[in-house]
Amino acid sequence: MVVLEDVEKTYHTHGGIVKALRDVNLHIEKGRFTVLCGPSGSGKTTLLMTIAAMLRPTKGRVCVNQNDLYKMSIADRARFRAGNIGFIFQMFHLIPYLNVIENVNLAGGVAGRSRNTAQARDLLRQLGLEGRVFHKPAQLSAGEKQRVAIARAMFNRPKIILADEPTGNLDPENAASVIEYLSEFHRSGGTVILATHQLQAEKLANQVIYLRDGGIERHD
Amino acid sequence: MITLGLILKEIRHRKVNFLLSLLAVVTAVALLISFFAASKASERETARLMLSMGFNVHIVSKDININDFLLTGLADRTMPEEYIEKLASQQAISYNHLLASLQKKISWRGLEVILTGLASEVCSPDSKKSPISYQIEPGNLYVGYRVAQTLGLKDGDTVEIEGKTLKVAKCLAESGSADDIRIQCNLRDAQDILKLPGQISEIRAVDCLCFAPTDNPADVLRKEIGSLLPQAHVFHTQTIASARAKTRQMVGNLFAVILPLVVIACGVSVGVLAITNVRDRQQEIGIMRALGYGSGQITSLFLGKAVVIGLLGTAVGFLVGTALAMKFGPDIFKITAKAMIKPELSLLMISLVVAPLFVAVASFIPAMIAVTYDPAVTLREE
Q1: pLDDT tens digit string along B346-366?
Q2: How far apart, in whole angstroms, are the C-alpha atoms of residue B219 and residue A59?
């Protein structure tokens, strides 16, 4: 379960104080497919980063599976993230000098986990990338890159997948397949929190949260 | 994936950054190695040239007539030969190259000559040095220029001095000094000729060239030697000593100016390149953070790369530096013997430890910058 209580995130910029999140209270049950909607700058990414234990809120509490994330040490948070959360980005963020399987295995390079090439290959096969295992990111299409990113996010068998506009750079066909992979993860019992504009995804969601100016506008 | 694998793959991917960093290290190491190698050779050469100026420490019997000794350079009293063993057995002393001699003015074949008997040069146990004086085999005689000219002697002649037969092993070239009227033989032969068994008239030595500018070398030497040989008197030739000190000081000053500049330039270059590398890899660092990589793992990627650059840079720099020293060293340092410059393996060993450490230190701040990158910020930047 993901719980946010009175979460605020404030940035101090040259132009003044920016409130990226304001009084966010949120309960997301385990195994739910949640979609975050809202215009650019509404706080979707900030909210995902906060849930992902990567961005300490200025105020409030963030708990994931009964773990108060920002009471943990940085090292413990990193370990928690590695074991529980998979993150998918709009820009894929693959390491350019590693090939496909090495990028996927990178998730296994975190302390205490060993490299598992067979598991990585299996994931890549499920995502239709068995012929691209030794290709570098520069040799892949946008859709393929995102599928590699999905494989990487799933490599450590996370309980939650956070996806930040994962279809933003994809054509409709690839976007649909990415949503389908997320949906499959959800069907297998995983929790998905997806920031997107895709109406198709909203249809699959158990819960849709509309954000505006850093606050929750409404819940569906 | 192991850190080294990631480091090597990143190096292959960002070749230019790596090559520039490597170039900085190679340049610094090559300059340092070439400078050290050539100047070590230069030091040896300087030492050789300086030593050829002569011994600058003279130890004679306390009973001599000092005025006569200063006037003629000959001690009119002898002292026991064991004195030299006493001096040579000491450790951590300020003199070396001990040479015992027995000298006396004699009349030979109607000529006034100086007969000099030379023992083998000895050094203290902790300061083994190659001899700087020639060794004369028993039965051999080295004849000064004027003596040889006047008496018509040549190499291979057999001569007799006070009933002792000696072979002329060498007729020396003109020196323009008292050496031209000197005949030199082994100490034992001289003791036989002068009927002074077990006696020497002088011990010559070279100071250690290690005095601080505030030291008075004569006082230091007198204190050290006086406590061992209370019956001896010590003279220290100031001009030779000061020439040596100045030469060493000049080389030292040159090092003191150039080396820090080279090291600073290398450090700055490596640091700047490391910062560039960190900036290029912001998103990569961000994704690793997002995947759960800790600060130690991120730091090890950058410091590990620094060590790789340091090790490789040292290896290449050593080869380049040695080659430079061998090619240009003799011109820069006016080293007469090219053969005196050789690969200094001790420098390679030191560099293999120091250079990677230095590069790691130069990369430390960039690595710390990398660790502090906020993944939430870097992963948003598109």
Answers
A1: 888 888 898 889 888 888 888
A2: 76
Measuring CA to CA, how many Å separate B64 from each of A53, B85, B212, B234, B315? 92, 21, 31, 12, 59
CA quadruple B240, B244, B245, B247: dihedral sign: positive
Residue A32's identity, in one-letter code, is R
Model confidence pLDDT, tens digit, residues B1-24: 568 888 999 999 999 999 999 999
Asked if A79 lies within 8 A of B292 by C-beta distance, the reply is: yes
- Among the partner-chain residues A46, A80, A110, the one whose CB lies closest to the CB of B291 is A110
Cα-based distances in Å from B26 to A160, A215, B21, B322, B359: 49, 56, 9, 12, 11
Is A55 near chain B, with CB under 8 Å?
Answer: yes
Q: Closest chain A residue to B296 measured between Cα atoms?
A: A75
Nearest to A109 among B1, B284, B295 (CB): B1
Q: B40: how many CB neighbours lie within 10 A of its CB?
A: 19
For every residue of B247-258, which 3-state class applies, written as one string?
HHHHHHHHHHHH
Domains of chain A in start order, with CATH, are: 29-58+67-219 (3.40.50.300)
ipTM of this complex: 0.85
How many cross-chain Cβ pairs, A to B, lie less than 8 Å apart? 82
Q: How far apart are CA A214 and CA B342, in angstroms?
A: 71
**Chain B: residues touching A (Cβ < 8 Å):** 1-2, 6, 9-10, 12-14, 283-284, 286-295, 297, 374-376, 379-380, 382
Q: Residue B314 gets which letter from DSSP?
A: H
Predicted TM-score (pTM) of the model is 0.65
CA distance A32 to A1: 9
B302-322 pLDDT per residue, tens: 899 999 999 999 999 999 988
Q: For chain B, say whether A63 makes contact (Cβ under 8 Å).
A: no
Domain boundaries, chain B: 3-49+246-378, 57-135+184-236
B29-32 long-range contacts, CB within 8 A, separation 24+: B29/B313, B29/B314, B29/B316, B29/B317, B29/B318, B29/B320, B29/B321, B29/B351, B29/B355, B30/B316, B30/B317, B30/B318, B30/B320, B30/B321, B30/B324, B31/B262, B31/B321, B32/B259, B32/B262, B32/B263, B32/B317, B32/B321, B32/B351
C-beta neighbour count of A187 within 10 angstroms: 11
Which residue in the set B9, B14, B293 is minimally distant from A110, CB to CB?
B293
8 Å CB contact between A64 and A84:
yes
A26 with A215: CB under 8 angstroms? no
Measured between beta carbons, the chain B residues lying within 8 angstroms of A93 are 283, 286-287, 290, 379
HSE-CB for A28 with a 13 A CA cutoff? 30
